[in-house]
Amino acid sequence: MAAAAVLSHALDPASLRHARRAAGLTQDDAGAVVGCTGATVSRYESGDIDPSASVLGILAGLYGVGVGAFYTTSPRMQ
Questions:
Q1: How many helices, marked H, and strands, marked E, lie in the chain?
Q2: Tens of pLDDT along 17-59?
Q3: How far are the Cα atoms of 50, 57, 67, 70, 75 from residue 53, in angstroms, in the given order?
């Protein structure tokens, strides 16, 4: 059987920072809405920790983007 390409989705921490900055918000601003500290938002943006799905939804709404904007898509062979 031939290998097939499958799309793989991965959280892109840099996209979190980009969307926040484009929205004109600080890490502290975002943290206040999500219910965490600006330091935690910084850890999301650096890839140290992954935000939960609910936090991603809140951030997407706050930043005016869809949750998909926080993910990269790349093909992988299966």
A1: 4, 2
A2: 999 999 999 999 999 999 999 999 999 999 999 999 999 999 9
A3: 9, 6, 9, 11, 23
DSSP string of 43-61, one letter each residue: HHHHTSSPPPHHHHHHHHH
Q: Can you say how many angstroms the Cα of residue 58 is from the centroid of all Cα atoms in its chain?
A: 11
Q: What's the rounded Cα separation, in Å, for the pair 5 and 46?
A: 29
Do 74 and 12 touch, CB atoms closer than 8 A? no
What six digits make up the tokens of 27? 């890490």
Return the pLDDT at 73.
78
